[in-house]
Amino acid sequence: MKHPRLIILCGLALAAGGFGVLYASRTAPYRQLEMECGPDLAWIKKEFRLDKADFERVRVLHEQYKVECAEYCRQIDAKHRALSLLLATSTNVTPEIEKVLNDAAMLRKQCHTTMLRHFFAVSRAMPPEQGRRYLAWMQAETLSSTHPTMLPHTAPSARHDANMQ
User: Fold this and answer.
1) Kindly report the CA angle at 32 between 29 and 34, in degrees rounded to 5?
2) Considering only CA atoms, which of 112, 111, 107, 123 is closest in space to residue 61?
3) Residues whose CB falls within 8 Å of the CB of residue 65, separated by 6 or more in sequence, listed in order
4) 3-state DSSP assignment of residue 5
5) Residue 130's Cα: distance from chain center in Å?
6) What is the pLDDT of residues 94-129, one digit of tens each?
7) What does R_g of the chain's alpha carbons equal in angstroms?
8) Under DSSP, is residue 76 helix (H, G, I), strand (E, B) or coil?
9) How far apart are CA 49 and CA 139, in angstroms?
10) Nearest alpha-carbon partner for 75 in 96, 98, 106, 97
11) Per-residue DSSP letters for 102-121?
12) What is the rounded distance in angstroms from the CA atom of residue 25 to the CA atom of residue 51?
């Protein structure tokens, strides 16, 4: 053992190389799936075992919905910014504040309605059993009271809520 540092370095290099080979081989199917489907939809193809035709219908629906969803997000964010400006200069709930709140609530309602229509359309594009499973999963993931789409962007932190009690 004339060269312990060399032995340690070789061991570390072999371990790192082994890890790299193992990581690359184990994640290759997922990387391939993401390249074929895109990162937004790889999970849905895998989770719901969609064939090419079913997946293509879902992909088209997703691309259409992304445009609508982004527009709702933009409009809702604009209302939140307007509300923040009004709140910064007000000491009472004014008619302007009420209007912005009503407008934001209407936009959120329209957004959620559009989202639900999208979920139903996607579920119909899948085999029936997978569609039912998709709807149940999306309902659990997106319509709970703690999902970010159900909370205003300026929600108080949990620590703030605890301090208020």
Assistant:
1) 110
2) 123
3) 114, 115, 118
4) helix
5) 20
6) 999 999 999 999 999 999 999 999 999 999 999 999
7) 24
8) helix
9) 19
10) 106
11) HHHHHHHHHHHHHHHHHHHH
12) 24
Residue with the two structure tokens 């690359």: 24
Residues 6+ positions from 55 with CB-CB distance below 8 Å: 37, 41, 44, 45
| Nearest one of 36, 96, 100, 40 to 64, comparing CA atoms | 40
Longest CA–CA separation in the chain, Å: 84
Tally of CB atoms within 10 A around 9:
11
pTM for the model stands at 0.64
Q: Tell me if 66 sits within 8 A of 118, measured CB to CB.
A: no
Tokens of 111: 């957004």
79 and 165 in contact (C-beta within 8 Å)?
no
What's the one-letter identity of residue 51? D
pLDDT tens profile 66-95:
899 999 999 999 999 999 999 999 999 999
Q: Which pair of tokens denotes residue 8?
A: 């340690």
- 4 three-class SS: helix
CA atoms within 13 A on the CB side of 91: 0
For residue 54, what is the enclosing H or E element? Answer: helix 52-88
